[in-house]
Q: What sequence folds into this?
């Protein structure tokens, strides 16, 4: 039988369960859209769900916060997420509508930064 291999993140969380997510080494960051149009950013054990907002009539290009590319307003969408446990405090981000192509260009460090902004107060 082979030995079980643990990731560095797993070991730190097992030995020091109170470790702040900011101090953990980067893991695999998942970035995807579900059937309801919400965007998920996930790095085990953290998970952030961003809810879509209505389109605006403006035609001004904006920068996607995940891939840092300039995109037209029709190719982008605004999302919001609650900060920490406060249900009345929201942060807003602009992301590409096409999450699949954006995830290929998005840097894991950038996605992790958005994730931590939603988890930490």
A:
């Amino acid at each position: 039988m082979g030995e079980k291999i643990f990731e560095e993140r797993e070991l730190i969380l097992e030995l020091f369960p109170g470790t702040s997510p900011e101090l953990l080494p980067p893991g695999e960051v998942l970035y995807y859209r579900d059937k309801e149009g919400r965007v998920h950013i996930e790095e085990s054990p953290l998970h952030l769900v961003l809810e879509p907002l209505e389109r605006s009539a403006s035609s001004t290009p904006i920068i996607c916060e995940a891939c840092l590319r300039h995109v037209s307003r029709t190719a982008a969408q605004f999302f919001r997420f609650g900060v920490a446990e406060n249900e009345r405090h929201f942060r807003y981000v602009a992301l590409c509508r096409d999450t699949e192509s954006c995830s290929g260009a998005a840097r894991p460090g950038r996605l992790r930064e958005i994730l931590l902004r939603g988890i930490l107060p």
Notes: The chain has a mean pLDDT of 84.
